[in-house]
């Protein structure tokens, strides 16, 4: 089937691409005429509560749909080559299409019930895609992904049941009323939590790097640009409900920390896909934090540009992984710019767009975000989180570039890298084009008037300063190769903490069940099998004996120490008396 | 036995009377003089030119008691200054109490106590555990900081119970037992002097039997109990007296503890009561452990090894043990 001219990949590509173009045209029309269309289909109505399927079409949903369709079309076209030796290609493509469908449901519905439809679909399909390579690691990663996202599903369900009180789930109509209701604070906090699970913010971020067990096209579509941004999109939609709540401030802190944490962890990581995943996490933190500062349009802007270049980055990574005989460790790579110049071109451009090099996609959104941070009245810790993370972005990007492209090829002594797979390259070029222009075109299109930014010179240049410093560090770190003395050993505990995403994968897997299992093991050992001797006579005796031994150690001192300690005690009491403490 | 040595008889006499000087003195200074005489008369009793350990113990005893005395003297001089303004504060009480606690070998100033008792004969240990406690205890009862004393009591009973658990030396065991009982005695003196007197007499009585018995059998370590070929009656005496010392109900050792617990509950010191009872269980545990394995499990009977005990001592021990066993039951008959 793959050799046929009209394979399922090609057909889906054409369909999705056409849908994308259609959405583009509609988006232009809607944005020019400031049009919003709301369609409602009342499914059931009882006791003045109606369950409706609603569809909201405005420039935002159309634009997001256009981007999702574009990326998915390109990714499906790309998987024609990437997954060419896959037996169940049909299943794979259908899964991806199902994913796109649930994403559409999520994007177009302003109704919390129909949102749940898309939301649950995303969780299920992403689980199926993560476990697509059926091995133990994929199962574990899939289970972590599914269960982390399940928390968000449960919270959305709770939101639905709570919003029954308000008579309708079309929250968009009742914003004014709901804003004045104190119970709505809880509902909004649940929505924020749900968005945090989907967007992998700090307590739930362990699943995003784990989900890299999925095939690379899936990572490009799902875990970089669409699924993880669903949480951001939900919060953008709910933004009116959340303004000035306590939980939004918490979200600002947590997402700032996510951004920082992911930036640091990416520098410790040696797995190519995980580096990019952590960079995604960092960018998600950026979107979330600018969103929680009260600038949803900026968050949306960064979401879109980021989707372009991050999908491209993943696709380049997929090409490289293919060429490396499925090797993902960047320590084995190097010097590939000599052999695969076109892929390297895409990779460099997407990396630079990620870093925010001027006039690429990331520049417009990221620079604007950082300047708005500078411009707003938030405290120093938030400021530092933003700017350190910007520097860290540059840091890991440069490290990645240096590892991949500058040094020597480290895998095998005889090799032939082949860069003429034009199916992959063509699909990458579409995104390359988009990641060059999407920043500027979105900037001109979606902001009716430009932001006014007025900053002192050094603050304006702050982005450039941190970027230069980060790039320099990235260069220095990349000089350390596999044969040199590994300096991480010297600070083993610190590197462990920072490289393991602040222990979050351990906490969210073993941390949840370890203590319960340990407790039950103790129960079995001591009560069932041990006839509870540990908790009665024997345990008492052993504790007493231990204490007695401890006491004997104290007793085994020089005699003068006893006398001297007594004198010191008396002197202390005397001084306490004299100074009337 | 130095009861027949006239020099030592002389010092023993001074030892007893110095205590009377102290406890009947009108002034702090008089108390101090009594304590010093007491110290200087006990040292010749301890020291024995043939035994290096005894000499070392006498030196250690001298050092600790001197430091405690110095601090006591310092404190009463400080009080002299302070009392001009009729000022009295808790810290000076703590200082004075500390020096007295050091003198009687109470925790946390007790570390010298098991050390020194290791070098003493059973008769000297008996004096150290009973008579030498009277003076500091009486002086403590004149004025004390109650919070401080309660903390000290808790320390005493816990350290006494835990510390003795791993000991193999009988004298050290008795020392820790005495530390534990010190907790009881200090709490008794916190409540009333007559209660303390009651406890102290019965405690001394039981200690007398134990020390006398061990002295007679010439026993210093636990393993000696296993291999000595003893009369059945002696074994029973030892067991019963240990149980009585631990405070098992029908015996007389239970009586003072019972009354102290009663008074503590009347004074709303429930936590202290609980600790007392729990820790006396541990005390009882290690008393029983000595006698149990000595007389019931690991009894090595060696036929060629006999000890002969003079009959008159034995009669006395039997009589005292009878009181120890039946005392509480008999005393009830006096009221009918």
Automatic annotation (TrEMBL), chain A:
InterPro entries: NADH_DH_su5_C, ND/Mrp_TM, NU5C-like, Proton_antipo_N. The keyword 4Fe-4S does not apply. Its EC number is 7.1.1.2. One of its GO terms (cellular component) is mitochondrial inner membrane. Residues 109-384 form the NADH:quinone oxidoreductase/Mrp antiporter transmembrane domain. It is a multi-pass membrane protein. Residues 44-92 form the NADH-Ubiquinone oxidoreductase (complex I) chain 5 N-terminal domain. Residues 396-577 form the NADH dehydrogenase subunit 5 C-terminal domain. It comes from the Eukaryota. It is an enzyme of class 7 (translocase). It is found in: Mitochondrion inner membrane. It catalyses: a ubiquinone + NADH + 5 H(+)(in) = a ubiquinol + NAD(+) + 4 H(+)(out). GO terms for biological process: ATP synthesis coupled electron transport; electron transport coupled proton transport. GO terms for molecular function: NADH dehydrogenase (ubiquinone) activity; NADH dehydrogenase activity. Keywords: Electron transport, Membrane, Mitochondrion, Mitochondrion inner membrane, NAD, Respiratory chain, Translocase, Transmembrane, Transmembrane helix, Transport, Ubiquinone. The chain crosses the membrane at residues 7-31, 51-77, 89-108, 114-133, 154-174, 186-208, 220-240, 246-268, 275-294, 300-324, 336-364, 384-406, 427-447, 453-477, 497-516, 561-579. It holds the Pfam family Proton_antipo_N. PANTHER family: NADH-UBIQUINONE OXIDOREDUCTASE CHAIN 5 (PTHR42829). Belongs to the complex I subunit 5 family. Core subunit of the mitochondrial membrane respiratory chain NADH dehydrogenase (Complex I) that is believed to belong to the minimal assembly required for catalysis. Complex I functions in the transfer of electrons from NADH to the respiratory chain. The immediate electron acceptor for the enzyme is believed to be ubiquinone. This is NADH-ubiquinone oxidoreductase chain 5. It comes from Helicoverpa assulta (Oriental tobacco budworm).
Automatic annotation (TrEMBL), chain B:
It is a multi-pass membrane protein. One of its GO terms (biological process) is mitochondrial electron transport, NADH to ubiquinone. GO terms for cellular component: mitochondrial inner membrane. Its main location: mitochondrion. It is found in: Mitochondrion inner membrane. Keywords: Electron transport, Membrane, Mitochondrion, Mitochondrion inner membrane, NAD, Respiratory chain, Translocase, Transmembrane, Transmembrane helix, Transport, Ubiquinone. It comes from the Eukaryota. It holds the Pfam family Proton_antipo_M. The chain crosses the membrane at residues 61-83, 104-128, 148-166, 197-217, 238-265, 271-292, 313-335. One of its GO terms (molecular function) is NADH dehydrogenase (ubiquinone) activity. InterPro entries: Complex_I_Subunit_2, NADH_UbQ_OxRdtase_chain2, ND/Mrp_TM. PANTHER family: NADH-UBIQUINONE OXIDOREDUCTASE CHAIN 2. This is NADH-ubiquinone oxidoreductase chain 2. It comes from Helicoverpa armigera.
